[in-house]
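@channel sequence for tomorrow's demo:
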Amino acid sequence: MTEVFEHNPGDHEDPRAGLTWLLGVIGTLTLVITMLAVWALYYNVKRVQVEETFLAPARQDVIELRQRQERLLTGPPRWIKVEAQGEPVRRYVIPIERAMDLVVRENSGGRR
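structure tokens (generated this afternoon):
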């Protein structure tokens, strides 16, 4: 009386090599294709961001704002009116170079 013990009756112990090989190749190809697609999408978005940020011509409103700021910083000394806590206040504005010289003179105690 010879009885053979099977873990799973009617099932083979080892999978077939051909099917395992085929699934391995399909899985590897799917992984590689997915990685290449993600890589392409990432670098495409990055390229578009670089073009929009650094290579696109500057917007006109930004150029005008910068010119206004430059005029405020380098213009002649003058009185201006500004709103401070809801009330108009007169302020004396001097060029930035002159203001920096005054701050250095104040903080250096006369030493240069």
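heads up for whoever presents: The first strand starts at residue 78 and ends at 84.
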